[in-house]
Amino acid sequence: MIVEVLNTGTELLLGNVVNSHVAYFGQALFPLGLRIARQTTVPDGAAIRNGLIEAFDRCEVLLVTGGLGPTTDDLARELCAELLGLRLVADDEILRQIQERCARRGFAFQERMRRQTMVPEGATVMPNAHGTAPGLYLPALERPSSRTPHIFLLPGPPCELKPMFETYVLPRLRELADGENVAQCRVYRCVGIGESMVESRIGLRLSNMDGLEIGYCARPNEVDFRLIGSPELLDELEPQILAELGEFIVSQDGANLEEVVVAKLRELGRTLATAESCTGGLLAHRITNVPGASEIFGAGWVTYANEIKTAELGVDAALIAKHGAVSEPVARGMAEGAREQADADYALATTGIAGPGGGTDEKPVGTVFLALAEREGPTMVWREFFPTDRETFKQLATQSALNALRKRLDS
Amino acid sequence: MIVEVLNTGTELLLGNVVNSHVAYFGQALFPLGLRIARQTTVPDGAAIRNGLIEAFDRCEVLLVTGGLGPTTDDLARELCAELLGLRLVADDEILRQIQERCARRGFAFQERMRRQTMVPEGATVMPNAHGTAPGLYLPALERPSSRTPHIFLLPGPPCELKPMFETYVLPRLRELADGENVAQCRVYRCVGIGESMVESRIGLRLSNMDGLEIGYCARPNEVDFRLIGSPELLDELEPQILAELGEFIVSQDGANLEEVVVAKLRELGRTLATAESCTGGLLAHRITNVPGASEIFGAGWVTYANEIKTAELGVDAALIAKHGAVSEPVARGMAEGAREQADADYALATTGIAGPGGGTDEKPVGTVFLALAEREGPTMVWREFFPTDRETFKQLATQSALNALRKRLDS
Fold first, then answer.
1. Taking the model in full, what pTM does it have?
2. Which of A59, A313, A316, B196 is the most buried (most CB within 10 A)?
3. Partner residue facing A281 (CB), from B200, B285, B389
4. Do A26 and B15 touch (CB under 8 A)?
5. Which domains, from first to last, does chain B contain?
């Protein structure tokens, strides 16, 4: 079954917004044996018409996002009805829900919102629990002269789209996909090894194998080695892959490093604290993005200023004066101080120069010292160099910190 | 000049990776008077061929991302050369750079990397400062039977693509775009008001105005009201817009809330501390994403555990026992404690229930108390309710906190 995605929205092409829908759809469809064959973004307005006409020709399922709002540039509903030759009819139940929602949230009902109550004949309404624009499902039409795909019109904001997709679209797609060939996708997420090295260690040996599809995806200090095939084949290949990549593999199910670390700590009944300078809270943020993090994470410090490193974590001011805040002894002191203050089993610390300013010849922008302290055993301190932009630097430094803890917990 | 983007990569459609290139290109092109007319994603392999052929027909500039890596699924370079009828020639200088890069980073040179040294005849090589795959620029070809666009082949990883784009692609596009009609885009970023309300307050009055293009884009607790037109027209309309939306407007240049708050604090010479429970470091992370944040931000606490709220911020344990950690007095205590400990001018605090677990009838998942303490003057505490997923909740709560501080600094 050929699935396409049509994203509408001038803001996506102007760059005011990053399109997160495609990745979300892709992940949700795969377990049904479905993949996105093509994704297109067009601006609001008339371009939506061409996007729809072309996609009607190529695909059997079309997911359309955006263009359902109350404002004048929202045309997806009207254009779809027009192209399919369907009349738009006002729906009283939608009107009631929108009015109720406005009352509950303390907003005034706007006459413009009436457009959102219009439904093409034959369409199924998908209620919006998090906004005013309902979604619409238009089943495939077989006509003597033409065929149209199953069309799902979905709201643009991800917090409205996602619950609607899960509640109404996925079950429908599961029915439609019935009988599709469900291959398995296994993603070996590796940290601490490059893409070429993954290929030369194992990828080349597996290329050209019947019934196996191989892919690679590189991110900052992370490579996904992706295999798609029958569960039996993937099981058969697994020992070879573990033998070659074992120490680098963080997960085999798409779990990210913070999810793996939090799960491992919960399993072991251990706790973690963080002391961040250059990563400025990202380490704590990544950890607390994982549901259940509160079981293993009680305290984090963002000690940007030197005096705060001393006052809060007990880092000797003389050490800072002698070695500088970005140094081996300060990273060590931060980790040990945080571990002790939080009475945690482990603590991670970061101190470095994120840039763009602040570098020196000896410690250029991108330099970072990391430390892992533990209740029983010596503190580990290591130096890394990530000369890149500020946000990637923060990502790489937290990646290095979390990966060190992962390896420690595995050992 | 018609510009299209072709993103290649199975991982984008499987959802292992979010496509951030489109937004990046869109923002970079607009100041040149250029916009992306259409963006398409196709999987690796043969589908790239169709994507290229169709785009050749429609556009004058084509930006292609991905498919330049060393692995077998990277076909963009080879397919482009084939479709354009250009021979691939090995480039010794690229080989030297790749070998040098490997040596510097301590990686072994892989024979597979030789593919990356192949250059189509007539192409200009764009060196890659952050990876092994060089980019390629293929100027437009005018042939009796066909015309092809200016083609830029760029590597997939954003940290490799962005510096290359800025150094080599943008200057070339600026030349090509010479004489394009440069309109101005003004984005009034509003917090604390809904999309419909923005339209009814001001948007409708401006719709159907000659030479003016209006757009809206809603995000969690944020609406962009976008006007595109001549600088004169935009200046003329500005007083009306400020009169209607003034108090809600965070920025007019695309700056986000944290950038505005950090800039304002720097301007005033004031400092900020943070005390986070439910937002788990995101508030500090957002603030420290802004270059120069260290001037105004010295200390942040992530006090997830109750004992840590007491030990680190001096929140009375009896208050926590009586009112619960998610309560007005605890938010107040956290903010005041953090401000005092950090000796800062302001402190923001968050305590709430991010979910999915932990809700009660009285305080359901999504409840959050926020506080803003200041050196001179009373602490402000407010309650919000954001019943949504964990990550959106964290985003909304930090949005509310930062917006309160923004308004305080403006008053």
1. 0.75
2. B196
3. B285
4. yes
5. 3-176 (3.40.980.10), 184-251 (3.30.70.2860), 257-410 (3.90.950.20)
